[in-house]
Structure formats: structure tokens, C-alpha cells
């Protein structure tokens, strides 16, 4: 099979990067459409799951390649085509532990979600509203779906930190700037899944231009041909980025795209 040649691949994180308060400005939408019309690939890589990405993305981008739950799975034309899920035994072990200590969390299952009955957090209302047509489980042992991400809705305590460290060979986690925590399978990241996806499509000749703002974007920004940070509070990310945007203005995003096109 002949390798596919794509000049530039643009990878955009959503929240805090091109989506502010769950909204993407129209001028950015116009620019992304322009990139695609010019033959470039536009992908979205986010910690959100299917329901969350669909709540933010305009309809014309829903069929773009989506790297979801920090690279735990890839959605292509509304179908999961690649995945890296948390081993069931590890997931049950960790979830049972979190419930023992009444930790506020939920479990991403692709097209379903598990929320312990005791969890009371404002985000759960948002999650349920976004996933009105999805199954919402409340009993851990009724779950048969693959688990892609465990999201902690509170800062890591010492007891949770100790547990995560003991499971370091099986899972990894990202602490976000708002102190929420995403737990995924070991060797799971936006960058690793992006590379795996491109290989599966025999796409070999390309330049990756990536936009991100948080800890789960570090590997992506580090390895991209051009890494762009957007108003990031993460010192490591800022140092690794080739271009740093210091505000959320749509024109700043567009200017960075234009600048990256010249490099």
C-alpha cells in the first residue's frame, strides 16, 4: 500500500486552548475549515470523552479524527478505531479503593459513564446533561464496558497518591491546572495514540503542529515539529513550546497558525 502524504497535521487540544468556557470562537472555526480546504489534516486531542467533545465541537468537525480521554481511544467517523483501555482488574481495584475513601470521581466508558451513587459534584450535572442518551451506571460490578479513564474531581490526597504510586506499572495520571486528575492506562497519551493512528493509516511524511495548555499536552508539545502553548500555567510545557501564546484571544491562535505555516 502506498504511503499517504500530508504536508501538515494540526492537532488541537480543546479546553483552555481553542475552547474557552466550552465555546470555540467563529473566527477559529473559519480558520480550521480553511486549513482543511487547503489539504491539511485537523485533529482534536482532548481529555474529554465522546459526549464532551461533541458538546464543544461544531457539527462540521464531529467526523474529524478525535483523540479522546487523553489518547485512550480514537474516534473516526463516530467509530472507535483504536484504544488503550485500563485493565479490568486494575480498574476495579482502583475504583473500589476510591469508593472506600469516598473520593469524588467518575469512570469514562467510551459511550457510557459510571458515577458512584455517593458522588455529589457540580460537574456531574454537566456530564449527565451532555450524555443524555448514554448509559449511566451507578453500580461498579454491573459494568462490562472497557474503562478508558478515571477522573478524580478533587486534588490527590496522600493516601490516593500512595495508591497510584503502587500501580505505576499499570496506570499513569495527569494532574490538571484545576487540580482535577485523569488516570489512564500505562503508556497512554495523546502523542503515543497520534503516532499509532498515523502509522495505522500509513501516513509517513508530515509535519505536526500541536496546540495545548496543560500537563496532558506536554509530550505532544515536546515531540511535535512545532509545539504551541496557549496561556499555560505549566512551566514545563511553556519551556518546551516553540511558540507561546499569552492570552485566549482568537486572533492570537490564528496568528500562531499562520506563523507555524511559515516555519
From TrEMBL:
Cleaved signal peptide residues: none
Keywords for the protein's UniProt record, in alphabetical order: Hydrolase
Cellular compartments per GO CC: cytosol
Molecular functions per Gene Ontology: magnesium ion binding; phosphatase activity
Coiled coil: none
Keyword Hydrolase: yes
Gene3D superfamilies: 3.30.1240.10, HAD superfamily/HAD-like
InterPro entries, A to Z: HAD-like_sf, HAD-SF_hydro_IIB, HAD_sf
Pfam family, one: Hydrolase_3
UniProt-listed PANTHER family: HAD SUPERFAMILY HYDROLASE-LIKE, TYPE 3 (PTHR10000:SF8), PHOSPHOSERINE PHOSPHATASE (PTHR10000)
Name this protein carries in UniProt: Haloacid dehalogenase-like hydrolase
Source species taxonomy: Bacteria, Bacillati, Bacillota, Clostridia, Lachnospirales
Amino acid at each position: 500500500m502506498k504511503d499517504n502524504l500530508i504536508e501538515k497535521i494540526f492537532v488541537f487540544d480543546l479546553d483552555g486552548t481553542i475552547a474557552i468556557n466550552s465555546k470555540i470562537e467563529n473566527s477559529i472555526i473559519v480558520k480550521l475549515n480553511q486549513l482543511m480546504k487547503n489539504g491539511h489534516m485537523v485533529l482534536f486531542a482532548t481529555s474529554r470523552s465522546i459526549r464532551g467533545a461533541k458538546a464543544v465541537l461544531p457539527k462540521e468537525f464531529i467526523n474529524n479524527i478525535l483523540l479522546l480521554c487523553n489518547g485512550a481511544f480514537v474516534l473516526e467517523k463516530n467509530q472507535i478505531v483504536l484504544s488503550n483501555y485500563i485493565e479490568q482488574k486494575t480498574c476495579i481495584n482502583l475504583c473500589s479503593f476510591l469508593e472506600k475513601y469516598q473520593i469524588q470521581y467518575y469512570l469514562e466508558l467510551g459511550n457510557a459513564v459510571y458515577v458512584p451513587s455517593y458522588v455529589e459534584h457540580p460537574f456531574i450535572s454537566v456530564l449527565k446533561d451532555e450524555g443524555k442518551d448514554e448509559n449511566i451506571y451507578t453500580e461498579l460490578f454491573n459494568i462490562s464496558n472497557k474503562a478508558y479513564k478515571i477522573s478524580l474531581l478533587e486534588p490527590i490526597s496522600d493516601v490516593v497518591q500512595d495508591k497510584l504510586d503502587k500501580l505505576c506499572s499499570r496506570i499513569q495520571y495527569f494532574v490538571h491546572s484545576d487540580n482535577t486528575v485523569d488516570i489512564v492506562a500505562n503508556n497512554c497519551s495523546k502523542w503515543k495514540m497520534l503516532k499509532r493512528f498515523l502509522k495505522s493509516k500509513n501516513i509517513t511524511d508530515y509535519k505536526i503542529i500541536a496546540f495545548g495548555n496543560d500537563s496532558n499536552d506536554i509530550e505532544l508539545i515536546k515531540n511535535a515539529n512545532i509545539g504551541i502553548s496557549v496561556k499555560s500555567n505549566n512551566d514545563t510545557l511553556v519551556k518546551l513550546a516553540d511558540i507561546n501564546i499569552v492570552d485566549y484571544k482568537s486572533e492570537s491562535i490564528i496568528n500562531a497558525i499562520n506563523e507555524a505555516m511559515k516555519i
